[in-house]
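Re: beginner question about structure tokens

> Can someone show what the tokenized structure looks like for a real chain? I only ever see the sequence side.

Sure, here's an example I had lying around. Input first:
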Amino acid sequence: MRLTVVTLNYFKKYVQREIAKATGVTVYKPFQGWREIRKKKWFYDENRPWTDAAKAANAPNKRHRHPLLEPIADENWTVFKGDRVEVLTGPDKGKQGIVDCVIKERNWVFVEGLNCKYKWINRSSTNPGSMVKTEKPLLVTTEVALVDPSDSKGSPVEWRYTEEGERVRVSLRTGRIVPMSKIAEDESEDMVAKSGYAEQEWDTKEAEVHKVTFKPTLSTFDEDILKQMNIKDDRKRAPTYWY
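And the corresponding structure tokens:
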């Protein structure tokens, strides 16, 4: 079991560090010795922040108009990679497909094979060229709906709790549970499938990670040490006077 990313959160810190390096813009003033560093807001698109394409789009000389988005908390996000959704707008309205990419910073989802843009490349009078098909993003708030597995139709969903305390997605139209996709459950934060982890001899064993080594108590640090070493404290506290 690989625990480097899980325990140290290395991948998330790496992305934050790359964004911080790319958003620092140095501004020089007229007189000598003056330097000001301004932080530029990162512009999210279909390219992941750690890719060269995303860094090029956020170069110091690049300017973007940041759109206004409906804020959605992570605990309220309902659409994940591998889910089947129905498109509610555009030429592919009514069609269903599988979500293959999610960008929460823009409320975007990409549906496999739907809402595509076609573009000719290397086309000339002598060369027919080739056509490239590119999937365009869809807003998760208004342009897609999760498919209810009971009747295979799109439906709004919300998070609820079962009697056993499990948090599940429930269709507001039929009241049925919409299960999570296996891809979303298996994929970790660094876009790697957990089922593909190979446990190495130098890794911390899974049993050791889940082993409970601390039990909280209401005793102080001194009282805890005395209890563990079987020391009986017979000292009497000196009287305290307040004037």
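Each token stands for a local structural state, so reading them left to right follows the chain. Residues 1-7 have pLDDT under 50 and may be disordered.
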